Amino acid sequence: MAFEVSYTLDNEQQFWDELDEIVSAHCQSHELIDNSLRSYLSFVTNYRGEYLQSEYDVVQCSYKLLESALFTTHADYVRRQIIYSLLQEDSADVLFFITSILLADGRQNEKTFEMMNEEGTFSRLVELIQSMREGDLFLHRMLLELLYEMSRIQRLRFEDLISVEDEFVTYLLEIIECLSDDVNDPYHYPVIRVLLVLNEQYMVLAHDPSPDQVQTHLPNKVIKALSLHGSAYKTFGENIILLLNRESETSLQLLILKLLYLLFTTPPTYEYFYTNDLRVLVDVMIRNLLDLPHSSTALRHTYLRVLYPLLAHTQLKLADCHYKRYELLRLLHLIGGDNGSVGNVHFGGVDETTKRLAGRCVNVEWLQQGDPESPNLDRNGNTNRYLGIGGNARAAESSLSVLEVAAQHERPGVQTPSNSGLLRRRASNADTSLTEDNAANTEKANEDGSLGNGVSIPVLASVSVSVNTNPTIANAGGEDGDDVDQTQGVGLVELQSPFEVQGEA
What we know:
By secondary structure, this protein is an all-alpha fold.
């Protein structure tokens, strides 16, 4: 058969030419398709070490198949055969290319990930990730990425989540601890993302069970591990704050916020984070909330739902740990809809849920303490009047919050809109418009010796706006202190705030 043919290659170009020939075969039966797939896998496996040295080479090799007539003509059959190979194959070399193909195909066609879920590949991926911990790190990372990608676009089956043992979660947390010296290690975030998506799946299972789900309680094993052994896995917490600071993809922000919500509403994990890390998180949340445009209502609600337990339950509530009280009240005053605030120009009309959630945060006890003459309070020291809420106890809690947080979802790849980006565009448009006006008036002045319309137009070299959308967190989570950039340009309203983080109290 074709896959048994041996090859003698002299150079890399011959490798690619031969690969093209293999995937260009015209197959009229399933048997011929299977033979061509075996030939492909045998060929790329034999020459991986010689001609497929980089990640780019491996991806290119996968796309040679995905863009071939063999695949495009028989896509569903080929996909299913590759998925069956994932379920049955034990050779790490062959699994390497199977995983690469499924990852590349699924990222451009979600149908692949849905088919994987139908065929029960989740538990197989969990098994492979655990069994290959000492093998090929590149393969191990791709397996983690494949598990994450297929899990974040759909709901997993109850029986799949049952297959996740406590040991698997602690194994992932231990990997992060071992990599703690290098947060930029490409192996780092695939592990973190798997834990985040597992947490979301447990959350959805608990608060939005499917109609055919067996009525059996399944504990959230990510929260369980951090509740029992959180002190041993601090690096994970440090890194999700760092990831929230850097991330612009809405779906990943929501994954992080969902985990933070559970950590801050589960008593054993109230104090999972170092105090310095909580301060960095406050800075990041202030910046992100200010940077969200009016249209991002659901994401703003989720941030506010996380902000309340962060302020009310963690060590930030302690007298010697209070942090950014003035900035927090100013933020809540702004987005909560104070009629006298210039913030309305920035945020537009404020919906009732935003008012309620902002008001609940304002009612946190330690935020109510302090100088009654603070400019974000009215002359009687009352913030609630501006936020449209009363002082009743019911405003401080919401039984719907966990359901709302669990229900939030966004398609992968969607970027969170930014007021900073809007400001840059306006500045750029202003620069272009004013420069064109200057040119027209200068031309008229050259003709008649005066400026157009009798108006003196100053020369405008440029319009620049200093906006930092990605402040750097240095030494995140350590006890030596953390820093976030000190300035933040916010849409139409410039809010200057010293965002340096004070030393550990």
